[in-house]
Design a protein that fits this description.
This protein has 68 residues and is mostly beta strands. The protein has one domain: Ubiquitin-like (UB roll). It has one helix and five strands. The protein has a five-stranded mixed beta sheet with strand order 2-1-5-3-4, with no helix packed on it.
């Protein structure tokens, strides 16, 4: 199955949900925000939202930091 992730084509074979896609790519779901086909998905729903051929994901990684 082909998805567009952050503007690039990606193969998501075997990933049926957002959570499965994140796990398969070594992404900690606690540290990202995900937009699926233009809709921001609440973290609690990552395991419920099914992926389909041609879907678009935007995955934003949270970055900590600042002055110490």
């Amino acid at each position: 199955m082909q998805l567009t992730v952050n503007g690039k084509a990606r193969d998501a074979q075997g990933a049926g949900t957002i959570n499965e896609f994140l796990e398969a790519n070594g992404v900690n779901p606690v540290l990202v925000a995900v937009e699926h086909n233009g809709e921001i998905i609440r973290r609690e729903r990552f395991a419920e939202v099914a992926l389909a051929e041609g879907d678009q994901l935007e995955i934003i990684h949270m970055v900590g930091g600042g002055e110490s």
